[in-house]
Amino acid sequence: MYPSVIRFLLLSSFILLAACASTKVQQEKLPCNIPASFNWDTTTVYKASISVMNKNFSGLIIFNRENDTDYRLIMTTDVGPKLIDITLTPKGYTKNFVMAQLDRKALLRMFWEDFGTMLGIFAKGKPGYSDLGTCCYPVSKNFTSCYFTSDLKSFPLSAYFVQGNEKKTKINYFCAVGQQPDSIRIEHLALNMSYFLNKLN
């Protein structure tokens, strides 16, 4: 099982490097109506199903909130062995443990972009751009994370990780008003790749 999981995640990094197309995002400047922070539990565990080019992998993804901006991401197989353990911050990531075969810059940056946007670690301070029901926050040069909601008190309905004016990744949150998401879908728009997370605790 172990080698197949490693090959699966390596495939993710290879198709990331090969991808060049994405979806354009339209922006109109209107008042911002998005909460700037996310109320995650100290530890949140999701059952993860990941699909890459019609190949599927399942495991666990654990998020440990270390402070207001930093989260520890741990990815394991279904039977327990740790694959990846990195700390996500607004400025980048720190490797705590990464299996040698998976220690690829493109793969780890993808996790930082995807899960950093999902967790809201980039949604701090004044947004770089705002729209009605939308706030976009600068991540790094030419990269932005955008959040969409229907009211101030609810968790975002969706989010995008944007490069320039093009959407790279779409995130949908499924939850009751005022609660953490029970499930989350993350989709790479230029790739045949997606994650589906179901909360366990």
Task: Write a compact overview of the structure shown.
This protein has 201 residues and is of the alpha+beta class. Helix content is 16%, strand content 44%.
What does this structure look like?
With 201 residues, this protein is an alpha+beta fold. The chain is 16% helix and 44% strand. The chain has two helices and 13 strands. It has helices spanning 2-18, 105-119, and strands spanning 23-24, 43-52, 55-65, 71-77, 82-89, 92-98, 129-131, 134-140, 143-148, 158-163, 166-174, 183-188, 193-199. Strands 1, 2, 3, 4, 5, 6, 7, 8, 9, 10, 11, 12 and 13 form a 13-stranded antiparallel beta sheet that branches. Strand 4 and strand 5 form a beta hairpin. Helix 1 (2-18) crosses helix 2. The longest helix is centred in the N-terminal third of the chain and has 17 residues, at 2-18. The radius of gyration is 16 Å and the shape is globular. The relative contact order is 0.21. Mean pLDDT is 80; it is low at 14-31.
